[in-house]
Amino acid sequence: MKIYKSKIDWWLIILILILFGYPIVDGILSKEYVLSLVFGLILIIFFFLSKTIQYKIDGENLVIWKTKIEIKTIRKIYRTNNPLSSPAMSLDRIAIVYNKFDEVLLSPKERDEFINELLKINPNIEVKRQ
Predict the structure, then answer these.
(1) In a 3-state reduction of DSSP, which class is residue 3?
(2) Which pLDDT tens digit goes with each residue over 105-123?
(3) Rounded Cα–Cα distance for residues 47 and 49 (Å)
């Protein structure tokens, strides 16, 4: 089993710290400690969720959280910057098209190594490297 971590954009970390850090600091300064606690907990949950984003190649399956994708059903891989919600912490993404109409957006740190590992299992995958 090989595990690949998600790439994380530095600007996304700063944006999240600003969005959630400001209410924490403001809540402390205005003595609204419940507000600070709530936003602090949200920030902690976000941190732990971001650390769990990983892509596992387990035998002939690609596992993303609880979702299993048979690598033999992957038809195409292409680069994208699509900002849609996905298990990716970067906008430097790849789209994996599988089955007939299914698609998932990922951002593995070692993108080329990840794609090559998928190609070892399914050499019929069309890869568009832009």
Answers:
(1) strand
(2) 999 999 999 999 999 999 9
(3) 6
Give the span between the Cα atoms of 96 and 83, in whole angstroms: 15
> In this structure, are strands 61-64 and 67-70 parallel, antiparallel, or unpaired?
antiparallel
Contact between residue 74 and residue 125 where contact means Cβ atoms under 8 Å apart: yes
| Span 89-113, average pLDDT | 94
The span from the first CA to the last CA of the chain, in angstroms, equals 28
Backbone φ and ψ of 126, nearest 5°: -85, 120
pTM > 0.85: yes or no: no
**Among 7, 8, 11, which residue's Cα sits nearest to residue 109?**
7
Phi, psi of 60 (to 5 degrees): -105, 20
C-beta neighbour count of 96 within 10 angstroms: 25
Over residues 68-87, the pLDDT tens digits come to: 999 999 999 999 998 888 88
